[in-house]
What does this fold into?
Amino acid sequence: PWGTVADNDFYSLKPAVDKFGKSPDVASERFVDVSAARIYNLAPEAADAGAEALRLLLCHPEFDIRLMAAAQLNRYPALVTELLQAPDARVRRAALEGIIRYPKELLTPEHTDMLWRMIEDPKEAWFVVDGALLALKPAAPEAALAHLDRLIYWLEHPEWWMSNSAMLILMRTAAAGHEVERITQAVAPVMAANQRYGRWSNWTMGPIMKETVPAAQPAFLQMFASVYDAWPVPSAAHPEPKHPDSELHFTTALATLMAGLPGGMDQLYTLSKKRFPRQTLAHRDVFLNSDQIESNPAMKAALLPLVRDELIPQFVAQNRRKLERGELLDELVGLYNRIGVQDYDWQVHGPDRTTMEWNYHSFDPAEKPPLGQEKNRLGRYRKVTYPDGMENWFKPEFDATAVGWKRGKSPFASFNGQLKPFGKCIGGFCGCGETPNTLWEKEVLLLNGNFTIPAFEEGYIYRVLVGGMSHVGAGDGCRIYANGREIYSRQGSVDRRAGGAPICAQIPKDRWPDFAAGTVNLAATGFMHYHDKSKEYGNYLTVFFQRMKLPPMGETMLNRAAALIPMRSAEWQMTQDPDTNVEPDDGKFKWDGVVVPNPAVKGTWNVIGQVDSLESFDVGTKPVPARNPRFQRMTFQDDGATDSPLWLWSGKMLMDLDEFQALQMEPRTVNGKEYLLIEAGGFNTQYGTAWTPPLWVLERE
It folds into this structure.
C-alpha cells in the first residue's frame, strides 16, 4: 500500500478536530465564504481574532486554506508546539509549513528535536516526514549525523519528492565536511537514476556548492563526474531520455556543478569528449564562462578555433538585426575576449571622468516629492521649477558665472551630507567607489561645461555614460544634454534584476555633427536618492564618453555562418509531427560550404507571381500575384553569391541568411521562356508534416 496509515488523513474530506474537540463548521460554509477572492483574507482575519480562531482554520479540510493559515503562525509561535503533536497528520503538516516559511522564528531547539523524531518514526505519514525534512534544511549540518541511517533510507525512497527532501539535508551535511564519502556514495546512484531536472539544477544545488568546504570538494567532484558518465542508469524509471534534448539538458546541469569545483573543467573536458564524441566541444557556455580554461592548454586550444571560426560567425548571423541596432555588442565582444582579442573593448573617448571640471549648482526645489515618493526606492525624480535665471541651464549660451554657479570637478557625490563615495566598485562603467571630488550639497544638481571631445569616426560606435548608478537601488532620474539637446534620460533608480549594467545611451549618427567641432557643451542634472534599505540619502554622478571599434559583422561572417547553422527546409517540415520526438536539427539543410554550379539558375530573374505547387505550374496554372515576396529581383552569380549578402545559392538550393531557411529551386522552360520556381519558405513547427509552402515564380530577365 502507498504511504502509512497516517497518510489516510490527507484523503479525508472531514475537518480535523483540535485539542478542545472543536472543528471548523464547514457544513455551513457558502461559496462566497471560500471563493478564491475570499480565502486570501480568511487566515489574516483568523489570526487577528486570536489563536483559537487560527487553530480552527488549521483544521480545515481544504489544503490551501490550511497553507494560508500556516503563513500566520509566526504571530503565535507557541501554537506550533501544540500543532506538531496533533493527532491529525494534516494539522502536523500545516505546522511544518509554518516552520518552512519562518525558520528563524519557529525552528527552535524543541521543534528541531520533534522534527527529527518524526523522521525516525516508521508510522509517521510520508507527507509529514517530507515536511519535516524540508523544515530541517536550515538546521545545523552536524545535527543530521545522529540520523544518517534514516536519512539515507528516505534518500533511497521510491517517491522522488521524499528522496529529494532527504538529499538536500544530506548534501548540506557533506558540504560541511561531515561523512563526505558515505553521503556522496549514497547520493551518486540516486542522482544517476534521476529523471527530474530540478533535483540537480544550479538553483537547487548551486547554494550548497557555494557552502562546500575545500576538503569535501574532491568527493563532490567525483560524485558528479560518475553521475555524468553513467546517467541515466538502467534502474532509472525511464532509462532512455524522453526527448532528444534531455541528454544535453541534464548533463549540462551536471557540467555546471562540476565547473564550480577545483579541477572540474579538466574532468568535464575528458568526460564530455567521451559522451559527445561528434561535438567539437559540448557544453560550450559552461566552458566559455569558466575561469579554469587558462590553466588547461588542451581546453584552451580547443576553445580558440571553436570561438573564432564557429561561435562568433554564428552569433553575428543569428543576431544580425540586434547587432545593427547596437544591441548585444558586449556579448559579441565577450566572445572575442574569451580568445584573448581585446581590440573591440570599450575605450574612454574624451576627458577622463575624474578630471572633468564643470560649472555646477544644487538646490532644493519648491515642488516636494508626491506623497509616498519621498522614500520611494525608485527615486524622487520629478518636474521641478529652476531658480530664477537658470531656466536655460542646459543651453550652450547659458552664463553660469552670472548667476553665481561654482566650479568643481566630477565625480559629484553626497553620502548623508558627506563627501564620500556611495558604493564600492572602481573603474569600469560605474565607478561608484572612486573618491569623489565635489560635494553634492542639495537635492537637485545642475551641471554645465565645455569639453574637448575628438570627432567621431566611421567604424566605431559611441556612447555617453552616467557613472555611479549601475547597482540595484542606486542613482535616481537624470538627464544629459549635448549642445543644448538631450542625448540621454532616465526616470528613476535601478530597479530589481536590472543592476550590473551600464547606465548609458548609444549616440545615433544623426547626433554625430554635435561632436564634429571638437568642443562640445555638455549639461546634466540629477536628483539625490533615499535608499530604502540602508536608510541613506545622497547620490553619485559622473558623465563621460566611450567608443568601441566595431567587430566584423559583414558578408564574410554571414558566409561562414551559412556553412555552420542548419537551416529549416521542406524536409525539416516533414518531420514536424507533434506526436513524434526527433532531434531538433533533423531534416534541416546543412551546407558544406562548397558551391555547386548550376548554369540553369545563373543570371537575373524577376518575380512575376506565385503558384501553390510545382505540379500546378507544370499543368499550366496561371500564377497569382505573389504575397509579400522576400525580394522582387535577384541576380545569381558564379560564386554562389547574389546581389544581396543575405542570400546565397548552391545547386538547386537558395539559402536565406536572414531567416536561416533553405529554399528549393526548380527551373522550367515554357514556350521558349525560362522560369525559376522557388519555395516561399515560412517553415514552422506549428504547421505539421503535410504543410508545403507556395512557390514564387520568377522569369529570366
